[in-house]
């Protein structure tokens, strides 16, 4: 089954560094039944009318350990 469970944005935007960098998005998923999710990340302009990047898709396995994080590059 596929369903949108969360959508995030930076309401005020952020400044992209010309030499690259890291932006971090974190969320808490409280549904204990979910053990895998697919993420889609796309950067747009502040008005969300223009796409500025390709869409990055990743399949993530969820664990109950707060100490584990997934880094997508």
Strand tally: 2
Question: Poorly predicted ranges (pLDDT <50, ≥5 residues)?
Answer: none
Distance between the first and last residues' Cα: 27 Å
Task: Please list the strands of the largest sheet in the order they lie side by side.
Answer: 1-2
Main sheet properties: 2 strands, antiparallel
Structural class comes to mainly beta
Task: Please count the helical segments.
Answer: 0
What report would you give on this structure?
The structure is a single chain. This protein has 73 residues and is mostly beta strands. It has a domain at 27-65. The chain is 0% helix and 16% strand. The protein is built from no helices and two strands. The chain has a two-stranded antiparallel ribbon with strand order 1-2.
Describe this structure in a few short sentences.
The chain is mostly beta strands and 73 residues long.
Layout of helices and strands, plus pairs?
Layout (H helix, E strand, L loop, with lengths): L35 E6 L14 E6 L12
Antiparallel strand pairs: 1-2
Write out key terms for the chains shown.
mainly beta, 2 strands, about 70 residues
